[in-house]
Prior knowledge:
Strands 2-3-1-4 form a 4-stranded antiparallel beta sheet, with helices on both faces. It is globular and about 45 Å long. The N and C termini lie far apart (46 Å). Strand 2 and strand 3 form a beta hairpin. It contains 5 helices and 4 strands; from the N terminus they run E-H-E-E-H-E-H-H-H. Helix 1 (26-39) crosses helix 2 (66-83). It has helices spanning 26-39, 66-83, 107-115, 117-120, 126-136; strands at residues 7-14, 43-50, 53-59, 93-102. By secondary structure, the protein is of the alpha+beta class.
Amino acid sequence: MSYTSSYYHIVFRTYRSEQTIPVEHDRELYAYIYGIARNLRCQTYRIGGMPDHVHVFVSLPPDLPIASFVQRIKTDSSKWLKSNPNFPYFQGWAREYAGISKSANEKETVIKYIMQQKEHHRKVTFAEEYRAFLEENGIAIDERYFLRDD
Length: 150
């Protein structure tokens, strides 16, 4: 038997960072993403976000690369959102995403962070949060492409 542990804090945004996820319906989206993850045999610890972006904290099975997971989440949820009348302005997801590996010891910290998104964003924009998220995790930012959709 093999033993693996792969926790990821994943962040992705709407196309052009448009505010197309109404707060009154965001839990519908999170439940849908949870279902996709469950069908992929993932353990989801928390999903949350704002009208322009989503955070997912998940543990992936050893045979599922993070890129494949994110592609399925974004593709399947995009189709669902575009057909759902509760999300009339949703146009799609931005191309890029951030996926940061985390340790089991960080689980509670990440869960709490995602739970506090609405409070957090009273003081910090998504661009500021995303930049800090990348920098804190040692990811170099190429300004030519940072938060660009064209």
